[in-house]
Amino acid sequence: MSAQDIANRAGLSVTLIRRLLRIAGQDQMRNIARSTADAVLGIPIPSRREPRAPGLTGSAEASRLLADLARAGWPAPALAQQLGINARTVSEVRDKRLRLRLDLALRIRRLHRELIGLDPVSQGIRPGDAARARAAAARRAAAVCHRREQSE
Q: Residue 134 burial (CB < 10 Å; 0-12/13-18/19+)?
């Protein structure tokens, strides 16, 4: 659990939790209020969602797969719904997020395999939404090419 997770669950400030987590030197003694100690010690350890896929991984492959689906006409909200995440998260992973949870990367890979050969319109996506997703993907690809040309 991160310091932020502990703080959220205990109802304490993250700064206080970070101070408590710092290792005290041999000659230092920490005084902790009983209410703070009770709040922190009463937190149950969360179970992992998918024990087969803990941790973080790079987002390069997931970003490429999501961009590929966008070029095929799959809009971010439709992908997000199938992945069980927010559409903004789909956009962030596709465009700028450096790392993501391993279980999400695996779900994106699985979703890409399922959808890449299908026509979004035949799967219930409105034709205008599919066209908008394709156009936005083309603009993003052109912007990336333009940035590469300028850096060279």
A: middle
Please give the Cα distance from 90 to 78 (Å, whole number).
10
Structure tokens at 151: 């850096």
pLDDT in tens, 56-83: 788 889 999 999 999 999 999 999 999 9
Indicate yes or no: pTM above 0.85: no
DSSP notation for 32-57? --HHHHHHHHTPPPPPPS-TTS-SEE
Strand 56-58, strand 99-101: pairing: antiparallel
Cα separation, 11 vs 24, in Å, equals 23
